[in-house]
């Protein structure tokens, strides 16, 4: 049964730059029936069907509404294989270097209808699944882990410094049948982070690059082919040659990013810990390609034909995750208040 989105009753229409696109911005979290969405199900970039979860169910976007496809999944981060595969993983690890309790990694092969704990995989945060290769990735406080049997057994990825925490991750689609290729951000106790690419063309012998870039704090990653994107404390860094050279994009992001690189200049003495930063990034496909970033206060977009950044009015709060569907018509993002949606249409 298709369940309507009550939150869509609370919306406003905002025209973006050059009048090329219109977005409908929800001013309240997505509520399906009486269930408020609180988690996004991660899958590969550009997935046709986006999924979210609340305390009562697992929902999939269908024809402008959200359809309940299963009961509420287990706690933790959620990853789905997408497509016709029913494979899903759910789990998380304790705060690294600070202690706490972990939860067991849970696995479903029927689209979330049933779940089973994975033996020996307590404290694993799922990252991605490639069902056609029986390949899955997860992180823990001991580094990056790979499964060659669709999440049933796990091994550590050699070449990843287990003394650093995996703090951000991105699947980088390759159209030449190469890969899978991913970007991984590793952060040390002092706050310095290191960006690596990892090539899983031979899943049993992945190739970990040397650090492609150093940056401060956690940030966020995205990419496609040889284009890598790092959303950081001091702006959005873009490489078009697989991490060899980088250029910074910051025009329009001055209110939420630092002017100088904290690794070189340090942090401003009067800076509040949550005053600046970009926590999420996604590439925008469709009629007008570009990027969206989630900041400490709302969502910003930039387009290939107009690379300055524009704040989407009606968005607010710390945006922790941004996901876009394959044709670029639906964007969902998560804050501490819940999951929101933005509908993107081309003006006639």
What do these coordinates show?
The chain has 348 residues and is mostly beta strands. The protein has a domain at 73-156. The chain is built from one helix and 33 strands. Strands 1-9-8-7-6-10-11-12-13 form a nine-stranded mixed sheet, with no helix packed on it. Strands 2-3-33-32-31 form a five-stranded antiparallel sheet, with no helix packed on it. Strands 18, 19, 20, 21 and 22 form a five-stranded antiparallel sheet that branches. A hairpin with a 3-residue loop joins strand 7 and strand 8 (57-62). The chain is globular, with a radius of gyration of 19 Å. The two termini are 32 Å apart. The model is unreliable at 1-19 (pLDDT under 50).
The shape, in one word, is globular
SSE-based structural type: mainly beta
Uncertain stretches of 5 or more adjacent residues: 1-19
Strand arrangement, major sheet: 1-9-8-7-6-10-11-12-13
Overall pLDDT metric: 90
Strand % is over 45%
Largest pleated sheet: 9 strands, mixed
Q: Which percent bin holds the helix content?
A: under 10%
Q: Total number of β-strand segments?
A: 33
Radius of gyration: 19 Å
The total of helices stands at: 1
Note the gap between the termini: 32 Å
